[in-house]
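Predict both folds.
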Amino acid sequence: MDMAADSAAQEELRLDGEQDQAQLLGDSSETLEYAEAELYGAEPPLGATATGRSFPLDVARKRWLWKLTIGLVLIVGYAGYYVCRSNLSVASPSLIKDLDLSKSTFGIVLTAGTAAYAVGKFVTGPVIDSMGGRKVFLLAMLCSILLTVVFTFGSAVWYFTLVWIGNRLVQAAGWPAVVKITSSWYHPSESGKAMGFISLSFLFGDAIARFYLAGVLEATDDSWVAVFWVSAITLGAIGVLCFFLLKGSPADVGLPLEDEKHTAKQSTADDIDETDGRIQVVGTESQPGSWKERIGPLLRNPRFWLLCFMSFGLTLLRSTFTDWANVYLTDETHASPSEAALGSCLLVGWLNDKLSRGRRGLMLMGFLTVLAITLGAYSLLSSRSLPLALVFVTLVGFTLTGPYTLPAGALSLSIGGPMCATVSALVDTTGYIGGLLSGYLVGLLAETYGWSTVWGLLAVVTVATIFVTAAFSLLDYRHSLPESLPHINSSSDEYELQETGVDQDDGELTFHLAEDKAK
């Protein structure tokens, strides 16, 4: 009798232990199927997830459809932001001519707007992490629409400067909000792919906005007022779409979280272990009380600072071209404002979807080296035709746009975790401090010394950015070494998932099958 009771008690303890283990690791068979699929490049089973948690097939299909919907809406929504941001650049030749402005005076408007954008990035990141991405994304969009309309009522430089400051200030919340929403919908194992997909919004958004608004400029006899009104109406229509289809998290549509245990124990920046540039997130129950406590360890991480310096150089380069391409083409080639706008859309129309994989730093260095040679060579030419100028901006677009997408996108996600909006905002803030130089200073240099001097100086900036990227490449390589990766041990027919670390290259978990020597 006692032996039977002991046996029953032992069996009960065994079942309890198995239940606890299942709750801790999720469905191990599903985890294994997902891991093996990832390892061999196949598609995982529909019900399996990267975390080991499985869902009924109908729920899995619903999650997949919503993830696809959210990704598409974010692309359209953030591309819409560019309609009310690129409008000033498209309309700039017409605006300068109508109001008889000098390049340096117009540069003041651009510089003030860039400064506001940098301040807005710094302020809105922590706000988005607290309030959520959807609310801030929609509110900033509404404010940008209203300020775009208000811009058309002015005729003085001081008025345009103040309104443009307001517009850029609210638009600064757009991308950190996108990053926050993405982190809520996509597991870290998917974030790299998701950000590459969503980055289409600003890779093609600016180009499409310029092409679209250039058509408006052509149809309205170069009326900059019409360009701003059409911008506001267009973004308003996109805003309605986002209001109904954009959801902040799976819970908003009645879906379970992919990894509730992970979500409940999301680590903060205070849980970041930094060793030789590697970032390992360690989940804890405690949450530091102040923003300073959470951000401190991040500020001590060298990869974060290298991202900031990279963003500084890349944003200076990109802002110069996006803000001044139309004016340059009009000055140098005597093209009309509308023709110049159509030509400059080539600047941001290229995408290299391989850039975020493998040796990202080395890929960046390759692109930037070509960019430096292009800028340096073009600055030495004595005469430039419109076709040659268009080839120039096309090559700049190919070599610059891809690298620009990474620092505040997938790389910020891989470092930031639950503070991804803050990290993205800080990286972007540093970038737009560099962007400040692209306004008044570039206008003054072009007016005083000519465009050749501008291109030569930008070649120097590119070379400096290459050296920063080389340092990042070294740390990125060390961060991707196998000893920091999670792996699956195997012994006979038994498998055990051991999370010994996270390979955050592209934000994707990588699993390795190996024999379990302990067994």
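Second protein follows, with its predicted structure tokens after the sequence.
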Amino acid sequence: MMKQILENLQNWQTEKKDKSAIASILKIADYFDINYPNADGSASYHFYPALELVKGEKEDVTQLIMYMISKKRDTKAFLDTYKGDWNEVIRKFTVINTPFGEGKGEDDDTKISEKEAMERKMRWSKEIGAWVEKNEVFDVFDLPMEDFNFKDSSITMQGHFGMKEVKVEEGTTFTEVKSSPDLIILQTNMQLKSQAYFDMAKLSPPFKNTQYQEEFALLQYKI
């Protein structure tokens, strides 16, 4: 299991060097279901994009997946200790693809407002290609524990891809607003038939410093 996880993460690192190829994969990425056993006291949870080769009848297919692990467990010390049990602490989620221009209407099942969540989802397929051309492609999303609910069994969760507007300081007097990849958490209460949207995701890279990068231990392993 450890070898397979590292191979899939390495596939992402290799493919993202080809900006055209990785943009084609990301443009149709829509959402993934989140099934994580329970909270473990972590301040946040890490989501790593990866690429899995799926055997097809005629040829292999590249499938975008996401690996989820708590910040508390995403350390070299912990992962080295549990090398034979990575499948118990790292969850794999298959990303559901939606072809460009389809399935993006107001009836999509997608704590920001529903209107803002849908606007961000709409921008994803339209803007992610241009963003990839100008930026280093991300390796991980860091989401705070407040975005999740692991206690209520009536609540299901999904991660939805979107583009949000962020302010970037240019010099000392000007702040530019740019679009940045986003991961929106949708919580659906099956009993109350209500939905809520949460978004405090941090994107990496860029890494603020070496210590910050070392917090993401999965990036330190090599096949």
